[in-house]
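Quarterly update from the structural biology core.
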Amino acid sequence: FRKLMKKNETHTYTLEDENSKIPINKVTRSTLVKVLTTAGVEVGQKRDIIADSILDWIDADNNHRLNGAEDDFYQNLVTPYFTKNAPIENLDELLKIKGIDENLLYGDNKLLGLEKFFTVYDLKAINANTASPEVLSVIFSKSQVKLVMINRDKKGFYDNSTSDYFRIRSTGRIEGSPTNHTINA
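Predicted structure, tokenized:
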């Protein structure tokens, strides 16, 4: 790898456990509401619109939930498109869903970012050993989260969970160039 690098080039990479997140295509409305609340979306209509619209995006029908959006909404946009009515394949797809913007998806000063909570992979289980405290707070009670964190600090792990899916992000930059390239796998 080093021999391929030229002078003044830098490469960085991250490895992220996808099993530390919640599978978005299996999510329930109550879990969506908890995630949105934890991410910083205020209680009220916006949170309900986003939760229902995500579920409408992935369900197979064209019937919208109380606060959701289906083809009738998306077809009236300046650049119209259809509801997917199928599983989400890439989290960037969330940007097409009513109520979601880049700040909510990737996070900003006020919002944690949905990408920190969700994965598109069909997981058997969420790995409590690698899940963030925020994700744990969505799936466990406060006392259970405290127990998980104590065990992780004390023993280095909570249980014998394992992970099947990992995301690798690699970014290359050339010194003095405003350009960089990132590959996700």
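The radius of gyration is 19 Å.
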